Structure formats: structure tokens, C-alpha cells
Amino acid sequence: MRCALGPDGLLYITYANAPGLSAINNGAVYKLDTNSGIWTNITPPDTSANLWYGYCAVGADPQRNRTVVVGTWNRWSPGDDFYRSTDGGTTWNSVKRLACSILLCRHLSTISRPSASGTLLSRSIPSIPITPFMTPATP
User: Fold this and answer.
1) Domain membership flag for residue 139
2) Higher-scoring residue by pLDDT: 90, 54
3) Residue 128 lies in a domain
4) Which tens digit of pLDDT belongs to each residue from 91-114?
5) Total tally of structural domains belonging to the chain
6) How open is the CA angle 89-65-36, to the nearest 5 degrees?
7) 4, burial (CB in 10 Å: exposed 0-12, middle 13-18, buried 19+)
8) Residue among 110, 65, 117 nearest 96 (CA)
9) Are 123 and 77 in contact (CB under 8 A)?
10) 102 phi, psi to nearest 5 deg
11) Of 66, 59, 67, 57, whose CA–CA distance to 120 is shortest?
């Protein structure tokens, strides 16, 4: 679906098995080390009941090696989400309500809205650029 190149030469690629919203029933996130040519599946973990959606949005931090954010696509329940990794996809953290304070999300106001519980409900997340002005400092 999309890709982003990190400053360290790691290429992150999101995948969904079909175009359009309702046809997607499988997806993943891969990383290509452009120096070694090695591919790695780095899909964020989820419960087996929820592994029926794809990924679309991806952004690599231009100033921090191995920092990447991906967004789900067509995850109607419990809703689409962003996942952030600072170790090249070895571990992931759900961003959910913090998405707008951490990232500049293209058209976020048109693709998601807060629910009564305060979580983001989305119609799918098409893109997510990371700018050096919006990424929090990492110790």
C-alpha cells in the first residue's frame, strides 16, 4: 500500500491484500534493510480474532533511526489505530488518543472522530507523515 524510508536505510512497507475498504481481510508490515537486502515481517501483534485487516499509513522519522509509525486499514472493530516503534518494529505501542499530539496526521479530522469513551474511531488511515517539528524527543 505505502512505504517510507528511514535515515538509516530501512524501508518500511505496509500491505493489504486488496484495494478498497470492504475487500481487505489480511495485511502486514515489512521492513527491508536496503544495505543487506534482508526482509523482516514486523507486523504489530494483535489477537488472532483481530487479524483480518490491513495496513496502509506508514511514516519513518527523518531524524531518528528505527522510529516508525504505521496505521491500520479496515479495522472496523475495535477501530483503526496507529502503532509506533522506536526499535525498527521489534516492539510496538498503540498510539490511539495520543496520535494527534505525537504526529501530524493528514486529514485526521476527516477520517476519525472521538467516541464517547475518548478513543479514536476511524474510517481507515491513508497516510501519516512525521515531521521533525512534531516528533517528541526520545531519551
Assistant:
1) no
2) 90
3) no
4) 998 887 554 444 444 434 333 444
5) 1
6) 75
7) buried
8) 117
9) no
10) -100, -35
11) 57
CB 92 within 8 A of CB 72: no
Q: What residue has cell string 524510508?
A: 5
Q: Residue for cell digits 525498527?
A: 88
Q: What is the pLDDT of residues 23-48, one digit of tens each?
A: 888 889 999 999 999 999 999 987 66
What letter would DSSP give residue 54?
E
- Domain range spanning residue 10? 2-122
Residue 136 lies in a domain: no
For the chain, how many residues are written?
A: 139
Residues 6+ apart with CB under 8 A from 77: none
Q: What is the pTM of this model?
A: 0.72
**Mean pLDDT, the chain, as a whole number?**
75
- Whether residue 7 is contained in a domain is answered as yes
